């Protein structure tokens, strides 16, 4: 499979990053232009992940680990959040486990969606029951809001 790295130039056109990328991008464009109406083709693409967004997610997990007694292991807490956000698979034992967050398994759009779903999960009553059972729903929402707001500062 051919992998092509492209960027948008000042004129708004896609260009290959290297000479080889430029050749392959032109080959792809020629292929697309040669399709007759009704013909189809297939391609894969990846939206690059934003390292800052990834760092923010990990910082939220770290701060949450400092603020709850429900977990004492970063990886276990992160996995719980990921599963709670619905990003999971069944293992051989038929248990639900977190999908990998590795850069080569999740592109930027998927990670952004995961982050949003993780925030939603953290506000849920299920999360409250696990993290801070002693807080009422309003106090829990305030605690999560403070946690998420502090990621920006």
Helix content: 40-55%
Q: Averaged pLDDT, please? A: 91
Q: What does the largest sheet look like?
A: 2 strands, antiparallel
Q: Distance between termini? A: 43 Å
What's the total count of β strands?
4
Shape: elongated
Tally of separate helices: 6
The Rg value, from CA coordinates, equals 21 Å
The SS-based structural class is: mainly alpha
Strand content: 5-15%
Main-sheet strand order equals 1-2
Write the element-wise H/E pattern from the N-terminal end onward. Answer: EEHHHEEHHH
Low-confidence stretches: none
Describe this structure in words.
The structure is a single chain. The chain is mainly alpha-helical. Helices cover 52% and strands 8% of the residues. It is built from six helices and four strands, in the order E-E-H-H-H-E-E-H-H-H. A two-stranded antiparallel sheet has the order 1-2. A two-stranded antiparallel sheet has the order 3-4. The chain is elongated, with a radius of gyration of 21 Å.
